[in-house]
Design brief:
Shape: globular
CATH topology of the largest domain: Aminoglycoside 3'-phosphotransferase, Chain: A, domain 2
Order of helices and strands: HEEEHEEEHHHEEEEHHHH
Strand order of the largest sheet: 1-2-3-5-4
Low-confidence stretches: none
Strand content: 15-25%
Number of domains: 2
Radius of gyration: 19 Å
Mean pLDDT: 94
Helix content: 40-55%
CATH superfamily of the largest domain: Aminoglycoside phosphotransferase (APH), C-terminal lobe
Number of helices: 9
Number of strands: 10
Length: 278
């Protein structure tokens, strides 16, 4: 039998064994969150164990996830340990393939989340995205361009009380064996406008056409749910919010090592990209 880490709380080890049976393999998973994440394979199943979990993500899986169960990994067990906690989650065997990054499958999940009333009622501190003056100053120094007008225009788009994932980028999705998709990493579960999530699904620095297509795909998903948007989603809004994600990354003072190259690329690419649509 493959040994599990002896640093895990006994409740976590017990929850893992209850699901997977005899443990056959255990290996760390890499990611950008900085959390301690490990996949455990057993005779019956595989699970993902996530330690040092942010209290907001722990609260999401305990209180909100049961209301959107098909959209997220199943929670097999959890342990609260003071400031953080542990999660034992369903393992999603496949990453989201590139052809599904901006597909109806993705937007159906987001549209469903966005229309579940008070799904975050059990969260004491839901994430609320913002674009601060300090973020503008940092980005302007890095890019050498004036962002004041764009910052002003974006702040209104960040407000709202729709439940959002806050980080549905393509790396945070998985595919089950039956082909259904699920969204994980809920540390930024919060309240904002639906456009925030849609903008984050767009990889790289999207063109206006790509933003138009995403807006149309999301609007179609809302139509399928019978919950059309009261105000149409515009490509320009998505581009502004995509800029916000870049500015937020540039303002990160202690970025993950894997993001250092991305930051440098953004510094080089953002001025021309902004000029193409702003």
């Amino acid at each position: 039998m493959h040994a599990l880490p002896d640093t895990w709380p006994v409740e976590v080890t017990d929850a893992v064994i209850a699901v997977v049976g005899e443990v056959r393999d255990s290996q760390p998973l890499t990611g950008l969150s900085g959390r301690a994440v490990r996949r455990v394979d057993g005779e019956r199943a595989s699970v993902v164990v996530k330690g040092d979990v942010h209290p907001r993500e722990l609260a999401f899986y305990v209180h909100a996830a049961p209301r959107v169960a098909d959209l997220v990994p199943r929670l097999h067990g959890y342990v609260e340990t003071g400031e953080a906690g542990w999660l034992v989650l369903e393992h999603l065997p496949g990453p989201l393939p590139r052809e599904l990054w901006t597909s109806p499958a993705v937007y159906d999940v987001l549209a469903t989340l966005h229309t579940v009333a008070d799904v975050y009622g059990g969260l004491d501190d839901p994430f609320r995205p913002e674009w601060t003056d300090a973020m503008t100053t940092t980005a302007q120094r890095a890019l050498g361009i004036d962002l004041a007008r764009l910052a002003h225009d974006t702040r209104g788009l960040l407000s709202g009380d729709t439940p959002v994932s806050g980080d549905p980028n393509p790396r945070n999705w998985g595919v089950r064996a039956d082909g259904s998709v699920a969204l994980f990493d809920w540390e930024r579960a919060g309240l904002s406008s639906p456009a925030v999530d849609v903008a984050i699904t767009l990889p790289g620095l999207p063109t206006r056409r790509e933003a138009d297509d995403a807006a149309a795909a999301y609007s179609s998903a809302r139509q399928r749910l019978g919950a059309p948007l009261e105000v149409p989603l515009r490509a320009h809004s998505l581009l502004l919010l995509k800029l916000w994600t870049a500015v937020e990354l540039l303002d990160e003072h202690r970025p993950h090592e894997a993001l250092r190259g991305t930051r440098q690329w953004l510094i080089e690419a953002l001025p021309a990209w902004i000029a193409s649509w702003a």
